[in-house]
Amino acid sequence: TVAGSYTVAVAVAGGSNPTGSFSLTNLPDVPHSIVLAGDNQSTIVNTAFGSPLVVTVLDQYGNAVGSGYSVTLTAPNIGASGLFSNNAVTITLTTDALGQVSDLFTANTVAGSYTVAVAVAGGSNPTGSFSLTNLPDVPHSIVLSGDNQSTIVNTAFGSPLVVTVLDQYGNAVGAGYTVTLTAPGSGASISGSNTLTLTTNASGQASASVSANTVAGSYTVAVAVAGGSNPTGSFSLTNLAAAPANITVSGGGQSTQVNTAFGNQIVVTVTDQYGNPVPGVTVVFFLPTAGASGTLSGGITGVTNAAGQVVKTLTANTVAGTYNIGVVAVGGVNPSVWVGPLTNTPGPLAQISFLVAPPTTVTANTPISPPVRVILKDQYGNRILQGGVQVRLWLVRPNNTVSPNLSGGPRTVTTNVNGLARFLNLVVTQPGNYKWRVRVIGQPIPAILSSTFTVTP
Known about the structure:
With 457 residues, the chain is mostly beta strands. The chain is built from no helices and 40 strands. Strands 32, 35, 36, 38, 39 and 40 form a six-stranded mixed β-sheet that branches. The chain has a five-stranded mixed β-sheet with strand order 4-12-11-6-8, with no helix packed on it. The chain has a five-stranded mixed β-sheet with strand order 14-20-19-16-17, with no helix packed on it.
C-alpha cells in the first residue's frame, strides 16, 4: 500500500550464483483525502498572508497522488475574503509530482474570519477548507454615538458616549487602542474629572457614561485616539437648566414724569437652584389698578428668553405717586417678588386750582376765613410741589369785571415748597356778590374763577 519505486533482488544458488533484480513501481491510488498547510493564518487587510495555501492530495493509503489532479480553491464572494494569484476569488490548480498545489493569497479590505473551500476532482473528490482572518489596519477615523445629547444639570445623560475606531477601510480596529475624552475644565461640562482615558474593546469601541455638572450651557467633549493617524473628533453636549427656583428683578428705585417711559427697563431673571438662567418660564406682573401706576411693553405677561430674562419697558400713567409692581414666575419655588419703589412725578406746571373752595358767604370788612389757598397742577391734575411761583388774586363782580372792593387791591403771593399760595387777611369792604379771579404771573396758564360768593353787611 506504499507508493514508490523499488527493486526485487534475484539470487540463484549454484554455479557462479548469478544475481539480478526487477525494477517495480507502486503507483498511488486515486484521491481520497487532503492535507493543508497554511491553515489558521491571519494578516492585516489588503496584505498577503505570510505563508502560501498548500494542498497535498493523498490516496486512501496516505500516498501523495502525484501530478495531474485538479484542485479548486474558493474564497467568499462578499465580506471578509481575499484574492488568489489570478486576482480572483476562485482558482483551479493542478497537482505536481508530489500531489501538491500551492498559491499565495492576499486579504481584501474587509476585516473578519472566513474559510477558503478546497475541492479535489477525482477519486472520492475529497474536500476541506482553510480558516483565515483578515485583521483590521491601524486607526484612521472614528464614529461617534451619543452625540448631540442634552440633559438637566447634575443628572446623567441618557446614552453613553461611544467612540468606534475604524481603519482606513472602515473596519473596527479591535481591542487595545487608547481613546481620550476631554471636556471643558470650567463652565458647562461633565461632572467629575474632565478627562477620561478609555481602551477600545474587541469591537473597536470605547464607551463612557457621563453626567452633566451644575452649569447650564452647550459645550464639546474632544475625542483623541492614539495610534495610526491619531484620529480626532468631538461630542456636542448641552446641560439644560433645572426647574425654576429663584427670581430676581432690577429696575426699582427710579422715577419718571407722568406719561413717559422710565429710563431703566424692568428686568426679571429666573434661575434654577444652581443659579442657571431658566428659559421658557412664564412671568406675570401685577400693577396697581388705581392711582399711580403704569403700563408694560408687551402686556403684563412674558416668557423668559435664553438668558432666563423677561425685559419690559414701563411707562408711567398720568397719576403722580409712588408704587410697587408684583412679579410672579409661574411654577417657581420662590413665587413672588416686588419691583419698587417706582415714582411718577408730576409734569410741567399747566394749571392752578383752589385747594379748598372759598367760603360761599363772608362778612364785609372781616378777614375771610379760612383763607383762600391755591395749588399748582400739571396737565393731568397732579399737584406740583414747587416754590417760588407768583400767583395773583383779584376780586371781580359776577360779570367778571374787576371790583375795587378788595381791601388793599389785588394780591400777589409766592408759592411755598409745597406749591401752595396762601392769601391771608382778605377783606371785602362792600356787601354784594363777587368772585375770586386767580392767575400765575409770567406764564401762559389759564386763570381760574371761583364760584360766586356773597358778602353780607
